[in-house]
Amino acid sequence: MRPKKTRWICCADDVRLFRPECKSGKELEFVHLTLDEFEAVRMCDYENIKQEEVAEQMKVHRTTVSRILSSAHKKIADALLNLKEIRIAGGCCSYIKSE
């Protein structure tokens, strides 16, 4: 398998965690959302930035952004529909220093 190209992101590198209140932590399964998936969702879905612009900022191809978004959406949907915890951390990312 080919190594992943580094994705450039500007979101915080701390671990984020979201969990449903209706289950205790011991009962919960989880999905792992990488930082590049989180960043792609933030920029495309929250900030309404076009995938082409997101690709430029992350220094990857637009088709890569599309695959990252598809993966993230599937994981988020799984967590919401099946009451799973979402853990956001990791991935092959480097950070853009904000000015």
Please explain how this structure is put together.
- The radius of gyration is 14 Å and the shape is elongated.
- It is built from three helices and five strands.
- It has a domain at 35-90.
- The strands form two sheets. Strands 2-4-3 form a three-stranded mixed beta sheet. The protein has a two-stranded parallel sheet with strand order 1-5.
- Helices cover 40% and strands 17% of the residues.
- By secondary structure, the protein is an alpha/beta fold.
- It has helices at residues 35-46, 51-58, 62-81; strands at residues 7-9, 16-18, 30-33, 85-88, 93-95.
- The N and C termini lie far apart (36 Å).
Q: What percent strand? A: 15-25%
Q: Would you list the SSEs in sequence order as H and E? A: EEEHHHEE
Largest sheet: 3 strands, mixed
Shape: elongated
| CA gyration radius, whole angstroms | 14 Å
Biggest sheet, spatial arrangement of strands:
2-4-3
What is the terminal-to-terminal distance?
Answer: 36 Å
What is the overall pLDDT average? 82
Structural class: alpha/beta
Using DSSP, what is the number of strands?
Answer: 5
- Percentage of residues assigned to helices: 40-55%
The total of helices stands at: 3
